[in-house]
Amino acid sequence: MFGGWLYGSYNTKGKFRCLKCLKNGTANNDATWSSAYTTILCRAYYGPDTDENGQAWIGGWIQVKIFAQQCLNCAEYVTGELDDQKCQNFVNWLHRWIAHMFYGYPFRRLGYQGKQSDRHHLVNRCESCEQGWCHYRGK
Ligand SMILES: [Zn+2]
Ligand SMILES: [Zn+2]
Fold this sequence. Notes:
139 residues; alpha+beta; elongated; 24% helix; 3-stranded antiparallel beta sheet
């Protein structure tokens, strides 16, 4: 487990608001959208440490990235936002994921993975599709 980052991706439904378009007075409907393929990528680095008293601590580092989608109107990349409930679900998943990755707690279900097909998903506007982390698997 040493010496590398471990990756996990979480799929949820998020909202996107293009601030550039909203600032330019574009109608709300054209400048905001939601996507069932909002992808959050987490990576964990396992780096246990020993403190000055010789006490061993198990843990490491976690980094999180929410993938962007491209605005249909102006082509700006916009980062997804989660509402309170979706955010809580994600944090819950993240806790379990860390417990699994660092401390070996069993973790069978890796969270909601999306419907795997959605004709509304615009693959060429999705940063996580581009980078291969999106849970969308085509029609
Ligand atoms: Zn825009
Ligand atoms: Zn995608």
